């Protein structure tokens, strides 16, 4: 049974295996920044600590918004990540939205993203949010289905800083 947990150094090896599957530094929803160094245990620990602190608006850069990060984990294995941004800035309103998520390639097709999104929608509701914006690449049919299964209503499809993007709103 999958669960959502706070980012932790205990899953470093599993996270790095996932990174190799993605074949790139970026993993949707994981909160990776270009300056993050995950090649060392210290750098990985610094990154997971930053993710935990980012929910506190005191410890973020002016171009960021407070956000809470969770890892999708099953049987001690990192399967993906999902984040809830507590507010939108201009950039996130154009594309990106309140929630970002990604599932490692070897764990896709099991409904994990749909499950995780439903869990985070409950947490957004508990925070007092009444609706959230979620976006995906126009060509990402699986992600569009995930959003729609969770009540997403398509607002538009347009060019954003992310490329051609589908923007959805979910009423909570």
Can you give keywords for this protein?
172 residues, alpha+beta, 4-stranded antiparallel β-sheet, 3-stranded antiparallel β-sheet, 5 helices
Write a structural description.
By secondary structure, this protein is an alpha+beta fold. It has five helices and seven strands, in the order βααββαβαβαββ. A four-stranded antiparallel β-sheet has the order 1-2-3-4, sandwiched between helices. It has a three-stranded antiparallel β-sheet with strand order 5-7-6. The model has no long low-confidence stretch (mean pLDDT 92).
The number of helical segments is 5
One letter per element, helices H and strands E, the order comes to EHHEEHEHEHEE
Q: C-alpha Rg, in Å?
A: 15 Å
Molecular shape: globular
Measured distance between first and last alpha carbons: 25 Å
Sheet-strand content, in percent, reads 25-35%
Task: Report the major sheet.
Answer: 4 strands, antiparallel
Content-based structural category: alpha+beta
Question: What percentage of residues falls in helices of 4 or more residues?
Answer: 25-40%
Strand order of the largest sheet: 1-2-3-4
Low-confidence stretches: none
Oligomer: single chain
The number of strands is 7
Output mean pLDDT.
92
């Amino acid at each position: 049974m999958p669960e959502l947990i706070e980012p932790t150094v205990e899953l470093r090896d599993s996270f790095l295996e996932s990174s190799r599957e993605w074949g790139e530094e970026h993993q949707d929803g994981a909160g990776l920044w270009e300056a993050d160094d995950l090649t060392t245990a210290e750098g990985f620990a610094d990154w997971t600590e930053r993710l935990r602190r980012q929910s506190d608006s005191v410890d973020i850069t002016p171009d960021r918004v407070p956000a809470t990060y969770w890892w999708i984990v099953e049987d001690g294995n990192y399967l993906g990540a999902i984040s809830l941004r507590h507010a939108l800035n201009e950039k996130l309103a154009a594309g990106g939205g309140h929630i970002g998520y990604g599932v490692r390639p070897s764990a896709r097709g099991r409904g994990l993203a749909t499950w995780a999104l439903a869990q985070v929608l409950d947490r957004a509701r508990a925070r007092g949010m009444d609706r959230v914006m979620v976006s995906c690449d126009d060509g990402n049919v699986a992600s569009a289905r995930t959003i729609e299964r969770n009540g997403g209503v398509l607002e538009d499809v347009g060019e954003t800083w992310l490329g051609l993007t589908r923007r959805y709103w979910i009423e909570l």
